[in-house]
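Format notes (please read before filing issues)

Several people have asked whether sequences and structure tokens are stored in separate files. They are not. Every record keeps both together, in the order shown below: the sequence lines, then the token lines. Line labels are part of the format and must not be stripped during preprocessing.
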Amino acid sequence: MAEVCFELFNNQLVQQLVGEADANLRLIEKMLNVEILSFGNQITIKGAAGDVENAKTAIEILYNKTSKGIAVGEQEVKAAVRMSGSSQTSAEEKQNMNDIVLKTKKRYIYPRSATQAQYIQEMMKNELVFGLGPAGTGKTYLAVALAVAMMLEGTIDKIILSRPAVEAGENLGFLPGDLKEKVDPYLRPLYDALYEMLPAEMVDKKLALGEIEIAPLAFMRGRTLANSFIILDEAQNTTPMQMKMFLTRLGENSRMVVNGDLSQVDLPHGVISGLRDALDTLKKVDSISSVTFTASDVVRHGLVAKIVQAYEQKGKKQQTEATKS
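Then the structure lines:
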């Protein structure tokens, strides 16, 4: 057993951190199997050494958030515990991750896992980043958040969001309505992310002015996109030719993020995923990075992470059995 005592110097921030009836501390206790006592601005943690250290790191992460004006609730506590428990991350790296905050008009957005923090850092550093992994890990949401933050700072002039409309076979003619009505259902998640970060009137104005563009992948052909932040969602459903076309749209002072889940390919049987092909083709090219998320990075409802883990385990078991046979 281990015990650590420390002080947090702003009593008002400590009150915000611990939550009503110390609810946030109770949640940390439950998640890490420790005992936490608070008296004023003094915190005492008891438990197994590793758990105590993780609990202290989680509390420091939450204290840092409150100092930046971020309200701390259940999701923030879970994120802090997730960050503190990253075994591959040093204390200094955890602190650097804790300093990542993306400012949009409606909210502060920050990483909720070590992989999310790495993903944001890679997007900041590199002109092309691949985000790989299951739904619910924040790949698209964080890419849109960084794009919005960079637009508000004046670093880029335009945000371009795209995804393939594979479910309609890239042949949208049989669907009812005009072109916008045909493709909007496939692009709805991108709209949703924007409206969470910017006032509706600002989103609508920027869409009307073309400063934000949401379009199916087929609309990217023949363009060079400069001073832009370009995001391709559901990239596992591109063909190699479509992927090459998209990647070569990159222009001066632009960043490109390509997201997808290679376990969810909806292409016809026998068609190679453009995402898989690009990862193999570009693995030795400089200024390109890829970040892989797992079920432990899922930040939606807790049950979603369990569902993803169950499917991952089933896939690994099937792979093992196929190898043996």
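For reference, the curators noted about this record: Residues 172 and 241 are 19 Å apart (CA to CA). The longest strand covers residues 2-7.
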